[in-house]
Amino acid sequence: MARESKKAKQLASTIDREKLHGVDEAIGLLKQNASAKFDETIEVALNLGVDPRHADQMVRGVVTLPKGTGKTVRVGVFARGAKAEEATAAGADVVGAEDLLETVQGGTIDFDRCIATPDMMGLVGRLGKVLGPKGLMPNPKLGTVTMNVAEAVKAAKGGQVEYRVEKAGIIHSGIGKASFPAEDLRANFDALVDAVVKAKPSGAKGKYVKKAAMSSSMGPGIKLDVAEVATA
């Protein structure tokens, strides 16, 4: 443990905590400093000028990262008959109806994203207390309650991520792995920021993107120059 903290201090000493960095510069520093034994995730934190306690200031949505996430996403689908077959053919990992309900109620959640056909929501609604706190409840606004299950499964598998502002007005999201080429991380970063800026709620007043930072799983945070991040 001491060795790890010494390493963390060494990494932190290579970063000027107060300096505002350009996005490309920050990506370069994070890739250079990512020295964990696993492929670290590159994460972005955006501090927004919103109060999510007000419904008209909630920022939430999905965005497809053009270069993928670098993660294997397991997808669960609540569907019956032809739609269940469609989901399986599209690559869903777990497909079912009452049987899947019982599995989840029994404490086994073997998926990272959950999709349901509209007719299954009466069933899925019973799992609100289980799926809700984990952010897994299907939602029509996020495209996870749909008759087009094949497209939803492919999107979830192909780099689609969900973002949601937390109580403190911050959005956290991974944009790929440290092993990604710098230009791929930049493309994913731009896609995320563009989606968040477009999702600016009408109730938000003043500066929207107040602060931004980037970090790797085990590395120190790097402050970004907000002027470069978004002009909103």
N-to-C terminal Cα separation, in Å? Answer: 42 Å
- Principal-axis shape equals globular
Structural category: alpha/beta
Spatially, the strands of the biggest sheet line up as: 7-1-8-9
Number of helices: 9
Question: How many strands, which pairing sense, and closed or not: the largest β-sheet?
Answer: 4 strands, antiparallel
Q: What string gives the helices and strands in order?
A: HHEEEHEHEHHHEEHEEH
Beta-strand fraction estimate: 15-25%
Helix content percent band? 25-40%
The overall pLDDT, averaged over residues, is: 90
- Unreliable stretches (pLDDT < 50, length at least 5) are none
Radius of gyration computed on alpha carbons: 19 Å
Give the beta-strand count.
9
Explain what the structure shows.
This protein is α/β, with parallel strands linked by helices and 232 residues long. It has helices at residues 2-13, 23-33, 81-89, 98-105, 121-124, 128-131, 149-157, 182-198, 226-229; strands at 41-48, 60-64, 75-78, 94-96, 113-116, 160-164, 170-177, 209-216, 222-223. It has a four-stranded antiparallel sheet with strand order 7-1-8-9, covered by helices on one side. Helix 2 (23-33) crosses helix 8 (182-198). This is Large ribosomal subunit protein uL1. Belongs to the universal ribosomal protein uL1 family. Protein L1 is also a translational repressor protein, it controls the translation of the L11 operon by binding to its mRNA. Binds directly to 23S rRNA. The L1 stalk is quite mobile in the ribosome, and is involved in E site tRNA release. It comes from Sphingomonas jejuensis.
